[in-house]
Amino acid sequence: MENHHHHHPATGTGTGTATATGTAAATGTAAEHDESAMAELLDLDAEVLHSYLSEVTAWIQGLATEPPSRILDLGCGTGTGALALLQRFEQADVVALDISAQLLDRLSGKARDLGVADRVRTVQADLDAAWPAIGTVDLAWASSSLHHMADPGRVLTGIFAALRPGGLLAVIELGSFPRFLPDDLGLGRPGLEARCHAAVAERHADELPHLGADWGPRLSEAGFTVEAERPFAIDLVPPLPASAGRYAQATLRRLRSGLDGRIGTEDLATLDTLLDSDGPGSILRRGDLTVRAARTGWLARRP
Asked: What's the pTM value of the predicted model, to 2 decimals?
């Protein structure tokens, strides 16, 4: 989260805190609510997609010539990747970097609960502004974060400089945002989710020009040797745990926030029916949800 999402994504966070304006910025309420919603979404992403995370970290372990002792997580969010990597590499410490103090606090709390607080150092930084002083690392992890950067090439240069020679960079990016619904919902017009995603893709083309990029050539340009590229397909089918319904609700709620004026009023009404936790049409009551998503991973080494 990954993810992302979207920024998320769903994982890189894309929390939107830098763009809060007017009274929201003055009171902090809208930005704080947005970050709380993002934190919940990232935690659900980690819970529902735990088998995918395990698969990704095993893939990294297979290509690591020696176990990393120092890991950097860029755009760590609530720590999905950082904590999964600490579980995989039991001798490692992690530097967890994000723009959001609230998400970093959430990560610190989780690290305490898991008994790994002494292995986590959090750093609040905006990578579009300047590269922070973090020292040298053996493994860098960037999950759904590079596409949020204004100048990803400059960030990759920073990662390259921070990695020791022979160190690895793992880049995970969204192939597609998670989808949950059948085509025919039994309410509204069929194809609702596809129309929502098409409308969001149109918006992202302007706002997130690096989303969906092929990162292989960009990694090579930054001096890395790309050692592996791999697609990860997520396809979870019923019966699913209750957390999958909450994950679907949180994802679609975030999607809904950018759809006014972009899809028809009938579709918006159907979406609102699904998102009403207490209503008979709530997404939380559906037994036909699936979780379908695609992500792509690149493993690149600093020569």
From this structure: 0.86
